[in-house]
Amino acid sequence: MPRAPRGAPASFGPRWLQQHLTQLLPRFPEVALCVAFSGGADSSALLAALSELARPPLRLRALHVDHGLHPHSGRWSAHCRRVARALGVPLRVRTARIPRRRGESLEAQARAERYRLLAAALAPGEALLTAHHQDDQLETVLLQLLRGAGVAGLAAMPALAPLGRGVLVRPLLPLPRAALLGWVSARGLTWIEDASNAQLHLDRNYLRARVLPVVRARWPAAGSTVARTARHAAEAQRLLDMLGATDAARASWGAMLSAKVLRRLPPERRRNALRFWITAAGLLAPPTSRLEQIATALLAARADAQPHVAWRGARVQRHGDLLALRAVSGAAGGHAPRALTRRRAAARAAPAAVALGEVTWHWRDNRRCVLPGAFGTLAIRRDARGPLDLEKLAPALALRARRGGERLRPVRGGPRRTLKNLLQEARVPVAQRARMPLIYDGERLIAAADLWLDESVQADGPRAQRGRLLWTAPG
């Protein structure tokens, strides 16, 4: 492990960090903090500075992810344990299992698995702190630009974002890496140097080693000026999200969107509304080519067709006039240019071989409910843009299958509608209707899977504790 020579302390330190976290987290210092600790110089600076503040009332712990991709990863985990123990910070080590997907870089797969493990380990309301700094932001913006990213990509890494049951915080984005190295040097701290950082076949390493030194020689303030560009892009993206939310709301029919309404939008607003609808559901935005297929060919298909467009983790399918969005497992890709007929779709659907009966769901204790047979899984997720008001839900909900005659009011102030008519108008396949779980508060139907919400549980104000229902059907 390298040991830095002692030097003059940089502007970074516990006091700077305390002031910045107070700006980012209104509940600081009462909020629980968890540091993503790799053992590198940056996360070592973050954890050590926080540990100097870790006197009551701070609640501080650390997480280390062992990716198992390097022969010395076990030594790195041991080093992180020693450092955390010396700082008096509880540490938990999680071991990653990296899925190998064709066409996707190992680096991207490792990053996705790391964030999945970190998100799963967060307690409700806990803040995960990462040590991304200004130089990381510069690299990210340039890489996104070279990959042809849109405004969202150029916005790069936000200082604050939702993650799992908590929030992701990047408090060091205003600082260059030199400030962090100066501080750990002054403390005489040791850290891990990952030899893979010298592998120039990786885009980020090549940019860092070969391109940015030349850029900084000409433009010394490149880090701060490009960070400003990222903030401008983030502001523009927020405006696009506001427009997308408005357009998606006008086209919405429960959790689905009307193809007829979307076709009336100009092409660029149509794509923006679709992108917002997909990402607001917590799914990855589709590649440009897939988004274009949804916005053109899928919307132009015949009303009696059921074409679909799929990409990794998600699928949009048209039922009559309505577009339905589904999370799918595996590395789904491709699309069906010709319609799947209702007969073929029904033949492929798994039958509801086991009766649902009635299942009681104490959703506050467990946000995920696995149902018997082919009824799939229901989940409730907190979402600041979600249509569901969590405060209006009873602590115990009843889950039942369709019995006939069910009614609810899906449009605020509109008429009560029969579920049968809603399903027919949406052209939901018959086999899917048979295995669709219904959600009741006592004897009152409040939701049909994640397709329709009754107005009695819809969020109707900025102060509502918003969430989203997610139904995952098997197969």
SSE diagram, text form:
Elements: H1 14-24, E1 32-36, H2 41-53, E2 59-66, H3 73-87, E3 91-95, H4 106-121, E4 127-129, H5 134-146, H6 151-154, E5 160-163, E6 166-169, H7 177-187, H8 203-218, H9 222-251, E7 252-253, E8 256-258, H10 259-263, H11 267-280, H12 288-300, E9 308-311, E10 314-319, E11 322-327, E12 335-336, H13 342-348, E13 358-361, E14 368-370, E15 377-382, E16 388-389, E17 397-400, E18 407-408, E19 417-418, H14 419-425, H15 430-434, E20 438-441, E21 444-448, E22 452-453, E23 466-472
Parallel strand pairs: 1-2, 1-4, 2-3, 4-6
Antiparallel strand pairs: 5-6, 7-8, 8-11, 9-10, 9-12, 10-11, 13-17, 14-15, 15-23, 16-23, 17-20, 18-19, 20-21, 21-22
Helix pairs in contact: 2-7, 5-9, 9-11, 11-12
